[in-house]
Amino acid sequence: MEEAKQLFKKLKIHTLLDLALITPMGYNDTTLSRAIVLGKVHTLEAKVLDSSTYGGKLRVTFILKQSRRRLSSTFFKVTPYHHTLFAVGSNHVIQGKIDEYKGYLQMSQPKSIKEVGKVTSKYKTVLKASEIASLVGAYVCEHHLYNEGLDSKEVATLMHIHFPTDIAEVYSDGRLKGDFVAVLKFVEAYNHLKKLRGKRADFEALAVLDGKIEPFIDALPFRLTAEQISVIKEIQQDLSTDKKATKRMVVGDVGSGKTMVILASVMMALPHKSILMAPTSLLAIQLYEEAQKYLPKAVKIALVMQGKKSKERYEEADFIIGTHALLYKKDLPQASLVMVDEQHRFGTKQRASLEALVSLGEKKPHFIQFSATPIPRTQAMMESELLDVSLITTTPFEREVLTETISKSDFPDLLVHIEEEIAHNHQVLLIYPLVEQSTQIPYQSLEESRGFWEKKFEHVYVTHGKDKDKEEVLLEFREKGNILLATTVVEVGISLPRLTMIVIVGAERFGLSTLHQLRGRVGRNGLKSWCYLYSHFKSSARITQFTQTNNGFDIAKLDLKFRDSGDILDGTIQSGQKFKWLDMAEDEEVIAKAKARLPKL
Ligand code: ADP
Ligand code: MG
User: Fold this and answer.
1) pTM
2) Looking at residue 419, what is its pLDDT?
3) Predicted confidence (pLDDT) at residue 570 exceeds the cutoff of 50
4) Comparing C-alpha atoms, which of 201, 200, 202, 266 is closest to residue 235?
5) CB-CB neighbours of 78 under 10 Å
6) Hey, what long-range contacts does 567-570 have (CB within 8 A, 24 or more apart)?
């Protein structure tokens, strides 16, 4: 047992199914060969006719029992053992690759086989061949596999793969049989889901939250979309118990109306307090303004930020909105609902301190996170084992954003178009790949191009990731600007209602999810908008397909599809769990089947 534990550790695996999923990279078959095919490995009965040494090498001539043909072999590293083993007149079953040289059969360094007619698996792991073989032999058995919850077909398939009696059972045309692959996909998904489920820890909640949401819903100037309503209902369900603190992630494209879900949740929490944390002060201010606009006047709202910018005393507030400054407030009142907006924007450190905010001894507040990074449905299905996931895949109004690829020759037309938009009191955003000049990248940097734009246009603003004043610049641009030159900082979800054009320079350098986030900045209020992907290169299938859809969930899927396509991608793509058999872009059904097999909670 102890030894097996060590081996599991060396293999970096934890479960029996992890072991069963280490499939052989090939097999060693000692079934006697029927016919000779040159260039292939054979197992043949043979008798030693002659044995001689020359130049340190041993040359053995065999007579093959079946064909009566002669075959000669040369051994290079010769030990006395070889001389004894291949003594003249001795009988063997030899195995090795057969070639022909000037009409004579040759087998270089054959093995003398002891056990004939056996198929053994060859594994490629960090372990010695004998160690992995005995580990698999000891643990991968029908009994254990059934215990893991597999059905008879799956058990039989895994047993065939590890312990075949005939290689043709497992392979056809040198490839693992299709229905075997299907089983491996299933086992891989099932094993992963089981592990995730094991990690989920639930706590009691501080309170049942069942405040009325109607005063808020009925006063809205628009009707909520079907998806907004269904997520709100899910949350009502979550909050209606204190047996289990909610852990939910609401994932919805930019502009899908997540703020309304946040505000509805605040209503449910009343008369208890809610806290909402946002990644930037701009966003916090925006949320504060929206909360004031849409929540009933009786709801007391406070804004907490660094320095003196805070509004209202939060001690008495029903709803406290803030930046990560919240995390450093010693005297935050107890809240029964904690929410995080744009959670994908928070770093690991901030997440850890956030954990503290939602931990209160044995009982915890209900916790809801909001993310604007659409994830593929497959990933959502997986992650929902750890926390509940709601997807909002539609937006309240169809955004009219035309995406086109452009190159240098289109530049004069682009300038005309920019002038037109500005004449309409609209705004234009230009995204550069770099702040300063670089020889690494065949595009102008922000600093190199600003002179051109500043000379040609009025009210040009410039900011970038390291700019200390970026929030002020963005705020001023929102009111007065025509053109904003920036790096990807504008990703952070601030709303620029007059923005109708974004030009992304060197678009092929960005991951699709980044491009989509950037594109989400324009057309927020239903104004017809444009996203121009500027590139020196002919557009790839990845970029072309991106121009054809505006749906973030489709884009998440495309991202999976093109992940290994060799395009230059930036670091924003989340490196998903790597599966050997399972294809996250295609295997939704397999995951659904595996989920259905999990034991009921
Ligand atoms: P998200 O946070 O998901 O990116 P927001 O909550 O900021 O999106 O919503 C985007 C815009 O859509 C806001 O101006 C908001 O007031 C508006 N909005 C939200 N829900 C609806 C709806 N059901 N009908 C019309 N407009 C809506
Ligand atoms: Mg939002």
Assistant:
1) 0.75
2) 96
3) no
4) 266
5) 14
6) 567/508, 567/540, 567/542, 568/508, 568/509, 569/510, 569/511, 570/509, 570/510, 570/511, 570/514
- Please give the average per-residue pLDDT across 451-478, as a whole number: 89
Q: Is 260 in the pocket of ligand 1 (CB under 6 A)?
A: yes
Share of the chain above pLDDT 90, in %: 56
Are 488 and 465 a contacting pair, CB within 8 Å?
Answer: yes
Q: In this structure, how many other beta carbons lie within 10 angstroms of the beta carbon of residue 129? A: 14
pLDDT at residue 454, rounded to an integer: 95
- Using a 6 Å cutoff on CB, does residue 215 contact ligand 1? no
CA 192 from centroid of its chain's CA atoms: 14
Ligand 1 atom with the shortest distance to the CA of 259: 6
152-162 vs 178-199: helix axis angle to the nearest 10?
A: 110
Q: Cβ–Cβ contacts within 10 Å for residue 291, how many?
A: 21
190-209 pLDDT tens trace? 999 999 888 888 899 999 99
The finding on whether 255 has its CB within 6 A of some atom of ligand 1 is yes
Confidence of residue 346 (pLDDT cuts 50, 70, 90): confident
Could you tell me the distance, in angstroms and rounded to a whole number, from the CA of residue 258 to the centre of ligand 2? 6
Q: Is the pLDDT of residue 577 over 70?
A: no
Instruction: Name the average pLDDT for the chain.
Output: 89
Ligand nearest, relative to CA of residue 344: 2
Is the CB of 256 within 6 Å of ligand 1? yes
525 Cα to the center of ligand 2, angstroms:
14
Cα–ligand 1 centroid distance for 233 (angstroms): 18
Residue with tokens 């620029």: 496
Residues, CB-to-ion distance under 5 Å, ligand 2 = 258
Domains of the chain, first to last: 2-25+130-176 (no CATH), 41-112 (2.40.50.140), 214-392 (3.40.50.300), 401-549 (3.40.50.300)
Please report the pLDDT score of residue 432 as a whole number: 93
Q: Give the pLDDT of residue 253.
A: 85
Q: C-alpha distances in angstroms, 16 versus 7, 135, 136?
A: 12, 11, 9
Query: Of the bound ligands, which one is closest to the alpha carbon of residue 279?
Result: 2
Distance 224 CA to ligand 1 centre (A): 9
3-state secondary structure of 448: helix
Q: 492: pLDDT confidence band, cut at 50, 70 and 90?
A: low
Residue 150 pLDDT greater than 80, yes or no: yes
Residue 263 CB–ligand 1 contact under 6 Å: no
To the nearest 10°, report the CA torsion of 175, 180, 183, 187: -60
Condensed to tens digits (0 to 9), the pLDDT of residues 82-97 reads: 889 999 999 999 999 9
Atom of ligand 1 minimally distant from the CA of 262: 6
| DSSP codes, 151-200 | -HHHHHHHHHHHS-SSGGGTEETTEE-HHHHHHHHHHHHHHHHHHHHHH-
pLDDT band of residue 440 (cuts 50, 70, 90) is confident
Angle between helices 2-11 and 129-139 (to 10 degrees): 120
φ/ψ bin of 252: left (φ > 0), alpha (ψ from -120 to 50), beta (otherwise): beta
Handedness of CA 287, 290, 295, 297 (dihedral sign): positive
In sequence order, what DSSP letters do the residues of 77-108 get, joined into one string?
A: S--HHHHHHT-TT-EEEEEEEEEEETTEEEES
Query: Residue length, the chain?
Result: 601
